[in-house]
Model the fold of this input.
Amino acid sequence: MQLIGMLDSPYVRRTAISLRLLGVPFEHRPVSVFTTFEEFRGINPVVKAPSLVCDNGEVLMDSNLIIDYREALAGAQRSLLPANLSERQHALRLVGLALAACEKGVQTVYELNLRPPEKHHEPWLSRVRSQLLAAVSGLEAEIARQAPTIDAAGTSQAGVTTGVMWRFIQMMVPEIVVAAEYPTLRAFSAAAEKLRAFVAFPPDGPGVQPSPALRVPSPQPSPLERE
Done:
């Protein structure tokens, strides 16, 4: 199996880390939807990252669907989500908050870096920023209340997605989500980034371009991959 996509995408990275933790072998291919568009289209005509090329050649896409498939392959004993229904419900809430933060972070980067300054729509940006901050604040409160261990960050889907989200947000929109205001998330992510599965798939890995500068929109397309 091959996982296709760049690790500066939080969706690709959470998928890679999750697959590693689930213990099912795969190959990561850092193919970009921007700089190697035609190569990606040859793998998946939809050009959506992440994409997973299964052993029989069928291509899956969307991080949630890929992880769900790999959970089924790994079996219940290797799941990254709790079996208990109430615990699973709460874990899915945390995953949802982290994914919402990723989505709003991506929307902010696209608005500021792919559209010319005169086309920026401040009411839209203000709305997206408020959603981003609401998601991050919700996670900060939840994780502070639970006081999770370092191990939890590396063995649960909520922990993986939260850890990946924070690193992504701090790479891309640190001016909006100020790290000093979220000490619990900052410590949580720092602990997660030391774990083997996180170290194996850094967001600044092969082929990843430097993070775009938010204050001065780049004349070149952002390398950021989007799910």
